[in-house]
Design brief:
By secondary structure, the chain is of the alpha+beta class. It has four domains: 124 residues, Gnk2 domain, C-X8-C-X2-C motif (Killer Toxin P4, Chain A); 96 residues, Killer Toxin P4, Chain A, CATH 3.30.430; 92 residues, Phosphorylase Kinase, domain 1 (2-Layer Sandwich); 206 residues, Orthogonal Bundle (Transferase(Phosphotransferase), domain 1). The chain has 19 helices and 24 strands.
Length: 656
Amino acid sequence: MYVKNLVFVLCLIVSGIGLTTAQTCLETGNFTTNSTYGRNRDLILTSLPTNVLEKGGFFNATIGQEPNKVYAQALCRGDLSAEDCLTYVNFTAQQLITNCTNQKEGFSWDGDIPCLVRYSNQSFFGVLALDPIQEAINPNDINDAASNITQFFQVWGELMEAVATKASMGSSRLKYATGVADEIQALMQCTPDLSQSDCLTCLRTLVRRYTACCRTYQGGYVETPSCRMRWDLYTFFAPTTDTVRISLSPPPSNSPPDSTKNTTATIKENGGNQSRTIVIIVVPIIIFIAMVVLICVLLRKRRKSKRQMKTTGDDDGLESLQFDFKAVREATDNFSESNMLGQGGFGAVYKGRLQDGREIAVKRLHYESGQGKMEFKNEVLLMAGLQHRNLVRLQGFCLERRERLLIFEFMPNSSLDQFLFDPVKPRLDWDRRFKIIAGIARGLLYLHEDSQYRIIHRDLKAANILLDAEMNPKISDFGMARLFAADQTRDRTRRVAGTFGYMAPEYVKHGKFSLESDVYSFGVLILEIICGDKICNFRKDGVDLLTYAWRNWREGRALNLVEPFLRDGSGSRSEMTRCIHIGLLCVQENYASRPTMNSVVLMLSDSSMSIPMPSTPAFMLSASTVQSEASSSSTTDHNSDQCSRNEVSITTLDPR
């Protein structure tokens, strides 16, 4: 778990964004660009990583004089190493600088980023803060995991209270505790500057909040600026000798309470022989009952799984797509490493060859973390009905025991990101890139307007564009896709998930997703295809990709964005300029100003069609942020990559 998290964030520092911190930029007051407060804010947040490392994982700091004084705090989770602590705080602080562009208060304390970073124009040190509260859930039903719900919740409550008490009794440097009760795993932490009573009050408030909102789910977290609690049915922290451990008591007897007491008394009175006799009789009965209950639970889950797979009403169609697990295992040589095409956060993809000679790509979803079941159902039901030359075709699926496999047509040229960003791969000429842009646009138009569903992809990026033998683009990975009604164009979610850099501002900040949020991702993708660099890696003149493209466009030097390899080639300069123009239209701050995919396809296909002027793109860096980044780049590498995967969301821990 920790190796995975560390590698993930190092990739995010060295090359990207898919995890996301849940920045809460509080609207309690704003500062202006290049103001003294803004410069102080950026400076103190930039200094936090080194200071928190020197102070052992917790640090309070101030800078400046009133009214431009800034208070800041950094706290790492209790089980983090010093190196991990530095990495996470560095990333989180930079994200606050980038995303809270002019708010005087902000904090970030999120599920898979195990650190707190907070700043304000008012002192909050040692002050209990119960607002704002953010909660997240693992949406799987607890009834699927606990055979005895009454006993489960009793032990759950005991564990939460024990862990909260232990955390509150910590020192002025660390108030952190973990606990285990069989499969129940819990973690709690307060900012160490809270008193013992305030810490306990804070944690108990979170437990009550979770119980009130989310008790029927298999895990989740609740957090405030002062404390957080998280629990789940799998290990997400490093247990130690200090971890609170509670054992589940044996199942309650079916006999009335008085009868139980009398039986116990009788056993004690009648001596060892009668005790052994009762044990010989009772133990097999208990084992038999447990086996019956287990079989009933397994049958119930199996029936539920079958019902879920048939919710579209096309039972015969889905059954015809089902593969035998043994056949898939043989096709992939038992999922050998030599056949692995790639590894993602929720599973690996393998190349396979069926007995009839067909080549396939098999996506094998992880099962040990509990994440993937919803994604599996989502992708099967969606992709079974999608038929378009610019979408990857689903060949079938396998749902057998704990295995969940998705079988796709094999794409011999892998994904677009490898051709754009891998220096070893041959460079794509402009004609090929323009064809890919147009193909992606047609595929997205099909999802938005022409398929039997209206579908929002929500994770459009170069890594999710596969290329067939003729280099035709095919949109893939529908694990986060959402279906809309025919007349619906937007919705809101409590779960923000995707890949930073490609997510629209209204989605990142408010959970609002729409046809226009996909258009935004497409605009970023166009600009990446043109410049040949990832949005998270791009830095020219000290600014990010969108800022650089916008400045050069306004100054009449749009072709500066084009990769030098293309500028020196024979590609059409007017097509390049037109694509940059379209890309900037797609990434406008105001989602209502972005074009529809129908308009995009027309603009790409008809060079005589007039195109409106774009307005300012979203997520442009302020001058103070750019200056701060440039000044710190000589000692740190935090700007090199911010495109990590957001697999645990702001508010809902559910499969990607």
